[in-house]
Structure formats: C-alpha cells, structure tokens
Structure to design on (222 residues):
C-alpha cells in the first residue's frame, strides 16, 4: 500500500471514530434513564427505584412510595433515588448546617423498617468523609431537625421535648429526642467513623446496626 493510500485510510478511520463519538454523546444526552446513585449500604428485603419528578418534593415522594413496600413484619425496604446525598439532605432539611452537607459522600440509603406491630419506621443512612464535621453538623442541626423531618417521621401533633439526650444502644452513643410522654420520636447515631443513621425508634436502630455488621452483610432475611 503506497503512502497516499495509507494517508487516505487513516483519515477515513479518524472520521469514523469521530462519528461514533458524536453519536454516543447524543445518545447519552438524550437518555431519560436516571443515574441512581443510591446503593446498598445494608442488605434489604425489598429495594425499589424511585424517580423524583419535576416539582415534587423528596419527602412527598417517599411517603407515597410506602404503599408499595413489603408488609412483612421485621422487613427493611429501601428506596433508590436519582439524586446524591447532599441534594437529598438539603431537600428534606431546609435548615441542615452546611458543615454536615459538605461532609457527606454521594452514596446514601433511605427506607423504612416494618416493625412487628405493623408500623413503618423511616430511616436514613448517610456516609461521611469527615467524622468531626458530621458530628458537629448533626449537633448544630438538633434544634430544628425534628421540624425539618416532621412530615417524613410523621410527627403530626406529637410535641417533642426541648432537647435531645444521650443514650447507649448496642454500645453505640445515640442522640435521642423524646415526645412529651418520654417515648423516642427521632434518633441519630454514628456507629462508625463513616456512617450516620437517622431513624425514629430503638427497634429500627437495632435492626440497622445488625445489618451494618460485616458478618451480617449480604444476608437477607426471608
């Protein structure tokens, strides 16, 4: 093959390659499939992908999704959302401190624990790149956390006590907010330096702690 033919062939290959790249770029731009960033931090019994529509709040979408989850007592159902942790937290928590938001890794999990008594108990599991910033951010969020999450945790007319208190569950320091009767309505904990768990009951917290344990990961309850 002479030099002229080699140059012509090379130009043809380059044009074809550029055409393929252009076509791939158009295909990706026009794709309507959401990129689901949420992934399995703990093993779950049911997982459902949920797309947040335009003009819809995250909280409203989560509450509506409850109806399609498992009704088996003791089960854990997770919802995969098409957004990252920082977007999620700032949507559900208007007053969440910047220090907490900036400490979050993209991955997170939100779902519901089905207690034996048949009541859904929501939970949020966040991953952090900065334990100290996450801890200080959560502490700063305490005065308004219950109000921010009132719809998600179904606070209703249940008036919380003025402040969180510290308790120990499974040898983990837990911050707990009780109602006027002394029953917990909101709890959060950092069971390790990279994980934040927010939920509404001790039963849900214990279940999440168990599923976070390395020896239990990958074991789905039947």
């Amino acid at each position: 093959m002479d030099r002229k033919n080699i140059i012509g062939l090379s130009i043809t290959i380059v044009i074809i390659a550029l055409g393929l790249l252009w076509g791939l770029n158009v295909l990706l731009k026009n794709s309507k499939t959401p990129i689901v960033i949420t992934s399995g931090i703990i093993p779950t019994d049911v997982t459902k992908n949920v797309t947040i529509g335009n003009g819809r709040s995250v909280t409203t979408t989560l509450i509506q999704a409850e109806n399609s989850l498992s009704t088996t007592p003791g089960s854990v159902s997770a919802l995969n959302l098409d957004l990252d942790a920082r977007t999620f937290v700032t949507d559900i928590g208007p007053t969440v401190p910047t220090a907490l938001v900036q400490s979050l890794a993209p991955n997170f999990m939100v779902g519901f624990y089905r207690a034996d008594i048949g009541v859904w108990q929501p939970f949020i599991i966040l991953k952090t790149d900065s334990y100290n910033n996450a801890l200080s951010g959560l502490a700063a969020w305490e005065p308004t956390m219950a109000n921010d999450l009132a719809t998600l945790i179904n606070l209703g007319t249940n008036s919380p006590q003025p402040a969180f208190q510290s308790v120990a569950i499974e040898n983990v320091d837990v911050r707990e907010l009780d109602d006027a009767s002394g029953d917990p309505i909101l709890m959060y904990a950092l069971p390790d330096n990279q994980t934040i768990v927010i939920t509404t009951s001790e039963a849900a917290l214990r279940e999440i702690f168990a599923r976070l344990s390395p020896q239990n990961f990958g074991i789905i309850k039947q």
User: Anything to note?
Assistant: The mean pLDDT is 78.
